[in-house]
Design a protein that fits this description.
By secondary structure, the protein is mainly α. It has five helices and two strands; from the N terminus they run ββααααα. The protein has a single domain, classed as Winged helix-like DNA-binding domain superfamily/Winged helix DNA-binding domain (Arc Repressor Mutant, subunit A). The longest helix is centred in the C-terminal third of the chain and has 14 residues.
Length: 99
C-alpha cells in the first residue's frame, strides 16, 4: 500500500485578508506570490529576484515559486488583473468620483 497523499505545505506562504486582499503573500511581508511570479515571468532568476527584493531569503522566494507552479492558473489570472492598466484606471476613477 502506498503512502497517503499529503497536501503540499508552503512554509513561507500565508494569506491575510488585511494584506493584498487576502492573496497569497510571503509570510511576514507584504510581498505577494503574484509579484514573485511576475518577476519570474519577466525572466529574472531567483538570484536576480533576491537582488531586487534583498530582504527576502532564498527559501522564501523558492517557496513562492513552488506555490506559483502548483497554482499557476489562479496566480496568472490574478497577475493579469493586477497588471491590467485599464482595469486599475477605471477603479481609480470610480473611487475618485465617490469622494
Amino acid at each position: 500500500m502506498g503512502a497517503p497523499f499529503r497536501k503540499p505545505v508552503y512554509p513561507y506562504i500565508d494569506s491575510d485578508p488585511e494584506i493584498a486582499g487576502g492573496t497569497p503573500i510571503i509570510a511576514g511581508t507584504r510581498i505577494t506570490v503574484r509579484s514573485i511570479a511576475g518577476y519570474y515571468q519577466m525572466g529574472l532568476t531567483v538570484d536576480e529576484i533576491l537582488t531586487t527584493l534583498s530582504h527576502l531569503t532564498p527559501s522564501q522566494v523558492h517557496s513562492a515559486l513552488a506555490y506559483y507552479f502548483d497554482h499557476q492558473e489562479k496566480v496568472d489570472a490574478d497577475l493579469a488583473v493586477s497588471s491590467d492598466l485599464e482595469y486599475w484606471e477605471n477603479r481609480a476613477m470610480c473611487h475618485s468620483s465617490q469622494d
